[in-house]
Amino acid sequence: MKKTVNFRSLRIPALLSALFIAAPVVASAAEEPLPKFQREKTVFKVEEGKWKGQRLADGQPDVQGAWSNTIGNHSNLTQSPTYVERNRREGEAPAREVVRPPSRISDPADGQVPFQPWARAKAEEFAKHLLDPVKPEYIEPLARCAPAGPSKSFMWHGFDIRQYKDYVVFLFDSGTRVIHLDNKPQLHQKVKLWNGDSRGHWEGNTLVVNVGNSNGKGRFGRSGEFFSENAKITERYVFDSDQQKFLYHATYDDPTVFTRPFTVTIPVRRVEKFAHDNWNNILFPAKHAGKEKILERYEQICTENNGGHGNGGVR
Amino acid sequence: MNTIHLAPRGHIAKPGGKSRASWQQRLLSVMLVAGFATLSVVTGSEAIAAPAGKIPRLANGKPDFSGIWQTTSAADYDLEPHSARRDGGQPVPTGPGVVEGGEIPYLPKALEQKKKNFAERESADPRNRCYTLSVPRSVYYPEPFQIFQRARDLTIHHQFGHSVRTVHTNNTEHPADPNDWWLGDSRGKWEGDTLVVDVKHFNDQTWLDRAGNFHSDALHVVERWKYLDPNTIEYKATIEDKNVFSRPWELSVILHRHREKNFQLVENYCYTLDYDKYYPVPVEQ
Predict the structure, then answer these.
(1) A24, B7 Cβ separation under 8 angstroms
(2) What is the pTM of this model?
(3) Which residue of A96, A118, B67, B108 is surrounded by the most CB atoms within 10 Å?
């Protein structure tokens, strides 16, 4: 009997060990080596406006394909001064010098979550115990295979966008989101979901999505920030007509947790032309008789990985 | 044991390689031009499948299975014919079964395992641990699933576990040496208006129904998806597993399109239920 191993359970320890260095870059011998996906230190700009790129048959801007966050990751939402130290595992070499990404909070300008004091204390308590989960609530839900929810899904692994008449579908490493473009009414407010219930429409180059019905159980990152089930979330996905990048903006309006609405901004790039790295680019070359390069996404299922933090991300 | 592959090997395409399916497909296309009705009559068992009404099609002319679907069969209780019984506290209705010929042809040792599974079905069914269902169980499990379809693939999104399977229809082949997957690796071809999907590379962690019918990681499924009319799909699956069954066998269910006003899939991450309570939203302090 083979032991079932999913990619998630491999990736987290892989990042933390020499295994990561040994992980093969999947590319056929006949192909040019692909460039490594580069993390960026600044947030690029894409303005809202007209869509000048290709369109699908139903008129939607064609943004299908594989994408990834370019800046930071799920470890921290803001530019935490202490995070790197916390994330260092006991017994490892001294902390590396890490260039920390800027905060993903674009508004307010100080890059901090405008928490009410009690909520800030809760977030800090969670972050403090991330590596020391003496209570079940200190285990990050994502580590138990819960969906990452908005916006953490966009700070996690690479993801797919697939488009259909009336739908935009996101295939994340942890969960799937179906954005309804069909004007169906939102679900009843009693229905609460990890990824919420999403209604969207296109405004030029921008996919505008209202997310309701969130269960408020997820986190923005391992740094512990959270929102409640009362949050009204408005997402604006601003796509560049070159089809190579977009800016994800999510505005959270939640008076139960925050003192004012605030906005998360995450820059995202298309990854098909980068090397497979098991994190940003999780595409594999398809086997087929032709010469065309076809990339595809393998199964990403985490339900059996239902224990402590990600089989090694945290112990 | 414990085979771990960080990345699959041997993914280099073989230029000039000829696919056996391609000439079959071409032949079938010719037959299709000659008249699909004739083909249906020739294959006999397909006679009930005479299309009533125009089925939806993609721009490339292939049948478009986009929509939300669900079985009304009792297949998930027990694939084989069975009398009414109780599974724990829950009554199970009598079922005529969905297996061609009635019974699943187990190898003797595997039959012992099936009987053991049946005896322990209430606690041992992987569905009760909310594991992703395999193929074909995900198709006849009594929760809706949604198909999103493009020329290159079908994305099958299940409400149970919110799990997603991609059926590739772009003439790609199974990867050579992958991990074992919950939903397997699905490669589809068109035979006329029937989508024929070859599925393999499974793990052995799932069952075929609540009665303990099971498989090993050698499971190989060939699915046949075909419209009976614009709102009904005939789904057939041939099940092969040399470790468990003495010969391939077939099951068949009907899938119905959800047409309720504003019907949609919702999440069912049932494996999160046990720890939901640890993530209260501290709305009042």
Answers:
(1) yes
(2) 0.84
(3) B67
